[in-house]
């Protein structure tokens, strides 16, 4: 399965991506995680570090190069999940070219819809375990004792507002791009993580138990 998860900041893309990928045995390709890893390794230019911290998008060619190189890796052969990419129409056409090189195309683009009044709280109270990458929420999914928690610099309240408006501007062209091709599916991201997972799996036509059983 080759799929894309789209949704506003804090919609739960990362949370659901980890569950789908574990179930399907495919890698999660998160451009946000790749950019943060490049920053941690001192490999992200200063102007891009500042752009991310301010809630803006990095240039299309930067993320396209990252994704192009990543899907070449052998673990992507059976499929992959793109989390937070593509975000713009040029990224979507760039992705077509990347997939064309492998003589393949996307199966589905799944948008997770969450009203903006819920997103602020989800992002601001998010914490990530530095060692495992596991995503927690101080209110809805509290971390265990001993977790090494990180608060993303772009999860400050005023930056989240900017990221939300960037997302709204971007999806105005991205979602119709996939809708016209009949690739777009939408689910509500409101409710508990488990409730959203049920909707996501139903929309993708996969079963939580089936994936586990097939790999057992
Ligand atoms: P990126 O890392 O992709 O961030 P994002 O899209 O803003 O999404 P988030 O990671 O904030 O949220 P999420 O939907 O994954 O939610 P999560 O599961 O963590 O991008 C960061 C930056 O990198 C961008 O701003 C840009 O600068 C740059 N970038 C990345 N990709 C790019 C691209 N393609 N082009 C250009 N620039 C790019 O959940 C959030 C919180 O809510 C967590 O605490 C979680 O525990 C909690 N939660 C999840 N689900 C539920 C639920 N159902 N109920 C209650 N709480 C929940």
From TrEMBL:
* Keyword Mitochondrion appears in the UniProt entry: no
Compartments annotated for it: namely: Cytoplasm
Q: Which reaction does it catalyse?
A: AMP + ATP = 2 ADP
Write the Enzyme Commission number(s) for this entry.
Answer: 2.7.4.3
Q: Name one Pfam family in it.
A: ADK
Q: Which InterPro entries match?
A: Adenyl_kin_sub (IPR006259), Adenylat/UMP-CMP_kin (IPR000850), Adenylat_kinase_CS (IPR033690), ADK_active_lid_dom_sf (IPR036193), P-loop_NTPase (IPR027417)
Top-level taxonomic group: Bacteria
* Swiss-Prot/TrEMBL domain comment: Consists of three domains, a large central CORE domain and two small peripheral domains, NMPbind and LID, which undergo movements during catalysis. The LID domain closes over the site of phosphoryl transfer upon ATP binding. Assembling and dissambling the active center during each catalytic cycle provides an effective means to prevent ATP hydrolysis.
Cross-referenced NCBIfam families, in alphabetical order? adk, PRK00279.1-3, PRK14527.1
User: What role does it play?
Assistant: Catalyzes the reversible transfer of the terminal phosphate group between ATP and AMP. Plays an important role in cellular energy homeostasis and in adenine nucleotide metabolism.
Record-given protein name: Adenylate kinase
| Organism of origin | Pendulispora albinea
Lineage of the source organism? Bacteria, Pseudomonadati, Myxococcota, Myxococcia, Myxococcales
């Amino acid at each position: 399965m080759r799929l894309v998860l789209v949704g506003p900041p804090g919609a739960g893309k990362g949370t659901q991506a980890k569950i789908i990928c574990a179930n399907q045995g495919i890698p999660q390709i998160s451009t946000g995680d790749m950019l943060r890893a490049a920053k941690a390794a001192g490999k992200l230019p200063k102007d891009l570090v500042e752009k991310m911290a301010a809630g803006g998008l990095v240039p299309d060619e930067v993320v396209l190069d990252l994704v192009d190189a990543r899907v070449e890796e052998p673990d992507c052969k059976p499929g992959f999940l793109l989390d937070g990419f593509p975000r713009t129409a040029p990224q979507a056409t760039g992705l077509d070219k990347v997939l064309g090189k492998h003589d393949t195309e996307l199966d589905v683009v799944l948008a997770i819809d969450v009203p903006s009044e819920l997103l602020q709280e989800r992002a601001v109270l998010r914490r990530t375990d530095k060692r495992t990458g596991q995503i927690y929420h101080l209110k809805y999914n509290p971390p265990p004792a001993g977790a090494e928690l990180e608060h993303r610099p772009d999860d400050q309240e005023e930056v989240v507002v900017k990221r939300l408006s960037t997302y709204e501007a971007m999806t105005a062209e991205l979602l119709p791009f996939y809708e016209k091709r009949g690739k777009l599916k939408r689910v509500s991201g409101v409710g508990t993580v488990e409730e959203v997972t049920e909707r996501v799996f139903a929309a993708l036509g996969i079963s939580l138990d089936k994936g586990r059983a097939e790999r057992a």
